[in-house]
Amino acid sequence: MKFKKNHKISFLILSIVVSFFVVVTQISAAEISFSVNTKIPDNQIDKSKTYFNLKMKSDQEQDVTVTLKNETKKDITINIGINSAKTNKNGVIEYGKSTIKKDESLKYPLDSLMTGPSSVVVPASSSKDITFHIKVPSKSFKGIVLGGLTFQQKSSEVLQDSSKRNTTVQNEYAYAVAVLLKESDDVVFPNLNLLKVKAGQDNYRNVINTTIQNTHAAILSDVKVDAKVYSKNGADPVYSSVKNKMQIAPNTLWQYPISLNGTAMQSGKYRLHMQVTGISDKKSKTWTFDKNFEITSTEAKALNKTDVDLKANTNNTSWVLF
User: Fold this and answer.
1) Backbone angles phi, psi at 233, to 5 degrees
2) pTM of structure
3) How far apart are CA 180 and CA 82, in angstroms?
């Protein structure tokens, strides 16, 4: 997972993720100011995993510990976040702080069950144990609670170091450690709904945005989407999108964009036909959605004016639609 560049600062993230693999960005040891290690407790479901994957009981309270090691010769400040898992537009589960809206089906966000410090100072060339407290609700829940702990050095310290080295670009590294909590082994299967279809933009490029909801506390893996957009009475699709190898987090809203591939948005009445296939608990299921929607003349004009692909080629007169 990567953060976008911001004011000449490139943000990267090393993640211990619950998608059952470890994502590691290749960087040199000299670039890392600190490291993160988890202390796996006795109620860890699979002790070979380095993220927290805990079996708990209703009303149970427990502390878990993460060790931060300062690799530098001066004190550093580490900012800490506790976040619920979300699904981004690329079908990737995010464990860090996000602008993605929480879904109303999420009864137990991780930050409502888990508490810990918002920042700590780790002395030079030493380690520090950070304790997080978990309190499971008294009312039992089915499925999983999924989220992550994030650790990132204070930005002002990183910028100060960059200034001393007379560099204009400085990488900031953050660790995200997934946290998965459950009470029973009862199987909960994901449940998908198509909530909304609307014209919009992704990175200043015209798209048809679909909003998919997973209302159940289970991960859907190996997700494939086959989406086609037709004019209301048309037999052939005017836009289409096929993507696979994605995931959907529990109790999440997922905005999946269908690209217009650099073409102008045209007003009119349309029909979306979408199939979403995924695997959970080694079982596959396909959801089929059909939804009518409309793009108004006002919406199309406004979107075409700000689409960077359309602006880049002023010789294409087919973009002047109205």
Assistant:
1) -115, 15
2) 0.85
3) 12
pLDDT in tens, 113-125: 999 999 999 999 9
pLDDT at 31: 62
- Look up residue 258 and give its amino acid: I
Residue 27 has pLDDT above 50, yes or no: no
Cα separation, 113 vs 100, whole angstroms: 20
DSSP 29: G
**Torsion on CA atoms 272, 279, 146, 37, rounded to nearest 10:** -130
The counts of H helices and E strands in the chain are 4, 20
Strands (E), the chain: 9-16, 22-23, 34-39, 52-55, 61-70, 76-84, 86-87, 93-94, 114-115, 119-122, 127-135, 144-153, 170-182, 192-201, 206-214, 220-231, 239-248, 252-259, 268-280, 283-295
Q: What's the pLDDT tens digit per position in 155-203?
A: 888 877 655 555 555 567 789 999 999 999 999 999 999 999 999 999 9
- Parallel/antiparallel/unpaired status of strands 252-259 and 206-214: antiparallel
- Non-local CB neighbours of 222 within 8 Å, separated by 6+ positions: 244, 245, 246, 247, 278, 279
CB 110 within 8 A of CB 179: yes
Residue 315 CA to residue 237 CA, distance in Å, equals 26
Helix (H) or strand (E) holding 283: strand 283-295
Please name the helix (run of DSSP H) or strand (run of DSSP E) that holds residue 161, with its range, or none. Answer: helix 155-164
Structure tokens at 227: 């989406």
Query: How distant is the alpha carbon of residue 120 from its chain centre?
Result: 25
The widest CA-to-CA distance across the chain, in whole angstroms, is: 69
Return phi, psi of residue 102, to 5°. Answer: -70, 140
Query: SS3 of 34, please?
Result: strand
Rounded to an integer, what distance in angstroms lies between the CA atom of residue 155 and that of residue 78? 9
Parallel, antiparallel or unpaired: strands 9-16 and 170-182 = parallel
The answer, yes or no, to whether residue 300 has pLDDT greater than 60, is yes
